[in-house]
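Example record

One chain of 92 residues, shown exactly as stored in the release files.
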Amino acid sequence: MPAKRREAGGSDIGRAILAYLVEHPHAQDTSEGVRQWWLGQRGIACNPDALRPALDELVRSGLLVVIHASDARVHYRLNTARKDEIAAMLAR
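Predicted structure tokens for this chain:
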């Protein structure tokens, strides 16, 4: 039997990030801000080593956009063109 393809954002951390962004579509933050604010508001504690793969997966899948700020820090935000698709994915 072929392996089922895992949906982007399928991890608990990835889904929590996407859920936050569907509710706050204009939010943008660094990985530390994502960990502290986006996940912290949902009662999800994770270390940076667990967060990085989730963020990388969401960026690779085109659900998050990376912004390189003038201070050389990387910021993440929702790919607003896919907001409806993400909301439907979270509803499943």
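Notes: DSSP finds four helices and three strands in the chain.
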